[in-house]
Amino acid sequence: DAKTTQPPSMDCAEGRAANLPCNHSTISGNEYVYWYRQIHSQGPQYIIHGLKNNETNEMASLIITEDRKSSTLILPHATLRDTAVYYCIVRAPLRSGTYKYIFGTGTRLKVLA
Amino acid sequence: DTAVSQTPKYLVTQMGNDKSIKCEQNLGHDTMYWYKQDSKKFLKIMFSYNNKELIINETVPNRFSPKSPDKAHLNLHINSLELGDSAVYFCASSLDRGSYEQYFGPGTRLTVT
After folding, report:
1. Using beta carbons and an 8 Å cutoff, which residues of A are at the interface with B?
2. Mean pLDDT score of chain A, rounded to an integer?
3. Which residues sit opposite A74 in a β-bridge?
4. In this model, does residue B109 exceed pLDDT 80?
5. What 3-state DSSP class applies to A81?
6. Residue pair A47/B111 in contact by the 8 Å Cβ criterion
7. A37: Cα within 13 Å, side-chain hemisphere
8. Binary contact (A45, B45; C-beta < 8 A)
9. Which of A7-11, A50-54, A94-98 ranks highest by mean pLDDT?
10. What is the rounded distance in angstroms from the CA atom of residue B21 to the CA atom of residue B26?
11. Which residues of A touch B107 (CB under 8 A)?
């Protein structure tokens, strides 16, 4: 199974961009990279996902390197409500269209006022 | 309306007891999941059901038995509880087994004394 490596914690000033890195050097060609976040022991919340190309939605941008061995989640204008643990996840295919998430240890992002 | 709900939110019990955690989703999704988050905040898939059929069964002790009476419900029964079962258990659902987004419930904090 592919695994992800993330820094355990990061700080970011409110209003600035938060760039959260993730290494997934053993990822396979058909495994997607996902990002979820968990705010203060609530259930994880989906943010974004991608395979090869960079992706953007209303919450964040995902930059995946060309060799797919690492990615960066970008929160363009961090707010205090973005303080959370951010998980970089590989979605591994099993069989018959079934997938499982392999969670990393996450990065605890603290947005500072 | 809560999309994915779990009961109870907190569960404190003694070693050796049998307990159940219930999960319901009102999203009309076909696929549901149970995850365990340990004290180090590491999230790991335990089971997944698709339309009442078991599709993922990770290496989990036989004391854990999921039951899906219909596709909107996935309950987790645990026999002979042990100290190591103390964790937060999250239920999740997705539109189908290949869907990119999973919706997580609020979690059930189980404490075994």
Report:
1. 32, 34, 38, 41-46, 49, 85, 87, 91, 94, 96-101, 103, 105-106
2. 92
3. A19, A61
4. yes
5. helix
6. no
7. 20
8. no
9. A7-11
10. 17
11. 41-43
